[in-house]
Amino acid sequence: QPLPQIAEIEQRDDDDLAGMSMLRQIVIVSLLNFRNLRQRLWQSLVIVAGMTCVIGVLLSMLSMTEGLHRVRLAYGDPRNAIVVSRGTRWESNSSIPRDKARIITSAPGIAKARDGSPIADPDIIVGVPARMQKTGGRTWIALRSFGEKGAMLHPTFRMVAGRTFRPGTHELIVGNLARFQVAGMAVGDKVTMPDGDWPIVGAFVTGDTMDGQLVGDTQTLMPSLRRKAYSTIQARMASPAAFATFRKALTSNPALAVDVMLLPDWNAKTNADFARFMNVIVYGVGIILATGALFACFNTMYAAVEARGREIATLRALGYGAFAVAVSV
């Protein structure tokens, strides 16, 4: 009767000994490999360098995406609402005719200035071709227009060099970030517009994405750019509860086809689209680089195993298991 139990115990002991033997083999062979690492130093560094480059590129691109994400979310006063044409995903693609703009700026819920006028400002957003200062590569810089209430809607706006533009004149001011990173954007330089060169008369800071933009007078830019419609309209809400009244008045008006959102919500929406686009690029590039690094690792390891064929055969002849040798390699 006790014989099956004894056999089971002996089998269990044999399995434990085999497991300990396998672990010991892996440790011994791995220690031998580490001792001989100097002979395979450059081959090993190829793998390490390849993996480091892939991870470094991926992290740098993800860091750039995250930085842009935080900057875009920080842009805009939470008391402000933005009005864009219905279905628009980007400010530059929006179009609001002048007659519709008058209806929007007179809607209920907008805060009033001291003179009783609504704190609302229609603006224009277009792209201007430019070149990077260090690399000389081509880029685009956003040109935004300010009306009478433009600066009032951006409480962090302040001039740091020169002066602001004079309404009705062909003058521009530049964000402090663009001034140092984009060629030809210093105070005193001129920007080529459809109707001639416009001088840059000052520089400003806002602490958000506007630091990389140009700003000019709305009523002067419209004829220069041959625009008959505004891009967007921003308005300061009289109170947090006033936004619902303002939005209902615009969306329920059959003469208007617009979307109304608080500025932080709009930024979050547009940033989500931008983040998805950037993530596709980042991970696409990461997969391509990782695939190349993987083949380089395979090639290097194949060469390493081929060079150590005699050593591996000797270990196998001495009784070391194939699994232990493979794990140590």
What's the topology here?
Elements: H1 3-35, H2 41-74, E1 80-85, E2 96-97, H3 98-105, E3 120-123, E4 125-131, E5 138-146, E6 158-162, E7 172-175, H4 176-181, E8 190-193, E9 196-205, E10 214-217, H5 218-225, E11 229-230, E12 232-236, H6 242-251, E13 258-262, H7 263-307, H8 309-317, H9 322-328
Parallel strand pairs: 5-10, 7-9
Antiparallel strand pairs: 1-12, 1-13, 2-11, 3-12, 4-5, 6-9, 7-10, 8-9
Helix pairs in contact: 1-9, 2-7
Task: Summarize the structure in words.
It is a single chain. Helix content is 49%, strand content 20%. It is an alpha+beta fold. The strands form three sheets. Strands 4, 5, 6, 7, 8, 9 and 10 form a seven-stranded mixed sheet that branches. Strands 3-12-1-13 form a four-stranded antiparallel sheet. A two-stranded antiparallel sheet has the order 2-11. A hairpin with a 6-residue loop joins strand 4 and strand 5 (138-146). Helix 1 (3-35) runs parallel beside helix 9 (322-328) and helix 2 (41-74) runs antiparallel to helix 7. It starts with a helix and ends with a helix.
